[in-house]
TrEMBL record:
Keywords: Hydrolase, Signal. Residues 430-470 are annotated as: Disordered. Belongs to the glycosyl hydrolase 30 family. It comes from the Bacteria. SUPFAM superfamilies: (Trans)glycosidases, Carbohydrate-binding domain, Glycosyl hydrolase domain. Residues 460-569 form the CBM2 domain. This is Cellulose binding domain-containing protein. Residues 440-456 have a biased composition (Pro residues).
């Protein structure tokens, strides 16, 4: 991605703009703000069946790009808005930054990356160009000054990427991954790569890169760029994440059968997009709902594990230039604030009615349902959650007049929930499979604590039986997520709690939800946050965290709640 027409002259494209190309391809719909028209009759939709046992992809998160060199850095307040999870925040859990072309440029985005890392956000980086000394020009289809990486500089380029990740790590930011090249197949303003060149680099040099590797980040999810990687076992072994951009990509081209066939153990990320365009204000309504459908299809049709916007702060982006959420941003927050890293998408009826889109996600006993109604009439929608009991349901809605607005609590009865989806709206529902525990209104990332009630002296309620803890771990090559369920087996209510356990050697928490974690390794204490400090008799609270490991994926062997030993199941 290069700068758009709203950006300073310094970086404007000298060739056909992406917008012109996409318009020529007919990829971008022409949409204008429409007057809201509510239908007189509430339509009924088919039941949306949700199966928590049918698990799909693990979600890594939602986020956006910071690029200080082109549009200026985020301010301190804007970083909190971007990565915070409370009211008025985007809840982004992923930050993408550029790789500097020289070491003098490495620190441009450091301040934002450091704050993101402090908040447990996943940070990854993409290069636009190698250092100038590594580049040669050539004639590419009449472009006489086209740039490519010199073939004798491949090893040096891998070390350049290592130098950037080392610089970031030495300054408190452990990059989750680094890309080989931003948009190698649409590089009029930066460095071109063919699929053959990409495979050669991956085969011979990517193995020396000291963090996860992303490739190929094709401009339009062009499969001819990524197919050769999937079909070459050596190149594939040196890639951790297949990355793609979705500029002008039709929904019919979202699915990727070859990845499903050969991508076992690899992630699939959508690493850049703006949608549906960069010309309209991000507050244009109901056009912003198109972003919701786009995200829905990226999760359901494409089965991406990450969804990353272009500039975080821009007139067409999730954050306006004044630092406030736009309508597009509110739509993104309906996913990002509630579907946190480590959640798993589960089966749900994706399109129970015309213009209604549903997806669902699970972490432990917590289930999140995201429902979009693009129609001009309200819809009565029933959800059925397999094997669920009765439980309270929290919900948040964005429509023409509201932005991620909390709604009155309702309830699910024996796994069935019927609600009204307002016309032209997006609603996120959070509930529990087992009932009893309060749904999480907004997952909390350490180190920002919430007020903690004074813990009760005995969480067992004086019955002599300890609380029950279930610990579920989902690990990959250098990280894992852990879901913890805490059940009050006593006869008295627990008012305020701290769960203590020892993480095995080499494990370190990077982010968490529904509790405040301290410290990040060794003997850890997880304290309740403001909305889940009370655990009624028989009730369960679900918490969790994401962590790194150095090869040891053992689980903690013992837990105490307010000093009382727990039964581990």
């Amino acid at each position: 991605m290069t700068q758009d027409q709203n950006d300073p002259v310094r970086g404007e494209r000298r060739f056909l703009s992406r917008r012109s190309v996409l318009t020529t391809m007919g990829a971008l719909p022409v949409i204008t703000a429409a007057t809201s028209v509510l239908g007189a009759t509430e339509a009924a939709a088919a039941t949306a069946a949700i199966n928590p046992s049918a698990q799909r992809q693990t979600i890594r998160g939602f986020g956006g790009m910071a690029h200080a060199a082109w549009i200026g850095d985020l301010t301190a307040a804007q970083r909190e808005t971007a990565f915070g999870t409370g009211e008025g925040r985007l809840g982004f859990s992923i930050l993408r930054i550029p790789v500097g072309e020289s070491q003098a440029d490495f620190g441009r985005d450091l301040a934002t990356a450091q704050r993101a890392a402090e908040l447990g956000v996943t940070v990854f980086a993409s290069p636009w160009n190698p250092p100038a000394s590594m580049i040669e020009t050539f004639n590419r289809n009449g472009q006489t000054n086209a740039k490519r990486l010199r073939y004798d500089q491949y090893a040096a380029y891998a070390q350049h990427l290592n130098s950037f990740s080392t610089y970031m790590r030495n300054n408190g930011v452990n990059l989750y991954a680094i890309s080989v090249q931003n948009e190698p197949d649409y590089a009029h303003d930066w460095t071109w790569w063919t699929s053959t060149e990409m495979v050669k680099f991956l085969r011979e040099n990517a193995g020396s890169i000291n963090t996860r590797v992303i490739a190929p980040e094709s401009f339009q999810y062009v499969k001819s760029m990524s197919d050769p990687i999937l079909n070459d076992s050596t190149a594939l072994a040196n890639v951790d994440i297949i990355g793609a951009h979705l500029y002008g990509t039709s929904y019919s081209n979202f699915s990727y059968p070859l990845f499903k066939q050969k991508g076992a153990g690899k992630d699939l990320w959508m690493t850049e997009v703006y949608y549906p365009n960069s010309t309209d204000s991000a507050d244009t309504w109901p056009q912003a709902l198109d972003v919701g459908e786009h995200m829905h299809r990226a999760m359901v049709d494409a089965e991406f594990q990450a969804y990353v916007w272009w500039y975080i702060r821009r007139s067409y982006g999730p954050m306006r230039e004044d630092g406030q959420l736009s309508k597009r941003g509110a739509i993104m927050a309906q996913f990002a604030r509630f579907v946190r890293p480590g959640y798993v998408r589960i089966d749900a009826t994706a399109n129970p009615a015309s213009n209604v889109y549903v997806s669902a996600y699970r972490s432990g006993d917590t289930v999140v349902i995201v429902a979009i109604n693009k129609g001009t009439s309200a819809v009565s929608q029933q959800f059925t959650v397999a094997n669920a009991t009765s439980a309270s349901v929290s919900s948040w809605v964005t429509d023409g007049s509201r932005n991620v607005a909390a709604q009155a609590a309702t309830s699910m009865s024996n796994g069935s929930l019927t609600v009204t989806l307002p016309a032209r709206s997006m609603t996120t529902f959070v509930t529990s499979l087992s009932g009893g525990s309060s749904p999480s209104p907004s997952p909390v990332i350490s180190p920002t604590p919430s007020p903690t009630p004074s813990p009760s002296a005995s969480p067992s309620g004086g019955t002599g039986t300890g609380p029950r803890v279930a610990y579920t771990m989902n690990s990959w090559n250098s990280g894992f997520t852990a879901s913890i369920s805490i059940t009050n087996t006593g006869t008295s209510t627990i008012n305020g709690w701290t769960l203590s356990f020892t993480l095995p050697s080499g494990q370190s928490i990077t982010s968490g939800w529904n509790a405040t974690y301290s410290p990040s390794s060794g003997q850890v204490s997880a304290a309740n946050v403001s909305y889940n400090g009370t655990i009624a008799p028989g009730a369960t609270v679900d918490i969790g965290f994401q962590a790194t490991h150095t090869g040891n994926t053992a689980e903690p062997t013992a837990f105490t709640l307010n000093g009382v030993p727990c039964t581990v199941v």
